[in-house]
Design brief:
The protein is of the alpha/beta class and 266 residues long. The protein contains 11 helices and 8 strands. The chain has an 8-stranded parallel barrel with strand order 1-2-3-4-5-6-7-8, surrounded by 7 helices. The chain is globular. Bound molecules: 3-methyl-2-oxobutanoic acid.
Amino acid sequence: MAKKVTVKTLTKLKESGEKFSALTAYDYSTAKYIDEAGVDLILVGDSLAMVALGYENTNSIGVEEMAIFTKAVAKGASRAMVVTDMPFMSYTIDIPSALTNIGNMVKLGANAVKLEGCNDYILELIKRCTQMGVPVMGHIGFTPQSMNTIGGYLIQGKTEDAVQEIIEQAKQLEQAGAFSVVLEMVPEECGKLVTEAINIPTISCGAGRYCDAQILVCDDIFGKYSEFKPKFARKYGDMKSLILDCAKQYDQDVKTGEFPSENEIF
Ligand code: KIV
């Protein structure tokens, strides 16, 4: 069996300048195939609220739901590192309740957690998690859980001051103990400058080509989620058509008596 990807593996890749890949997954079999394909890190992203549960945005999902998907993905991933996205309000009320929720995800099989934002509270929480043995992935730039204060799905880091602020945040996250940082929807130059400024891997989610890693939502690359496709995502397949074709054919076969055949009965 291939060796499990750990924080150490990713740190070494950053040091040697080798890129790594990350994808979201929400269920056992998808995680298994993504793992088998060689993807290094699987995020149980809160994007599952929209793509797997049909919610309007990511803020509607709770810890109980994230726990179910974490358990399934962790069972499917034998090599890839599994990171659970801590959902909206599950880690921002106070440190004790945050640590309880985070600890539960690890008990269910997560190898690390992702926390959005950078302020004194988040930095303290990262320190406490790291002390209790839970690696933390930071997430700055566009942070979907703060969509209502940001004012929508808006590109961040568009001015020199904003870029400096993002670089400063990345340095603070690194100092607090984060093992990596997701940069979402920032100009490529911003992604490059942050990547050069810190010693932990930067993971681009629409932050350009100079980051140490890339992450995308699995349903976007599979062509399964068709309601919205971000500019930075690439569609590698057309699962929507595949599902439609299979379901239509099955429907027809049942209705015409073509299914089941002699080989499919007892
Ligand atoms: O929830 C999610 O899918 C994310 C992205 C970084 C991929 O947070």
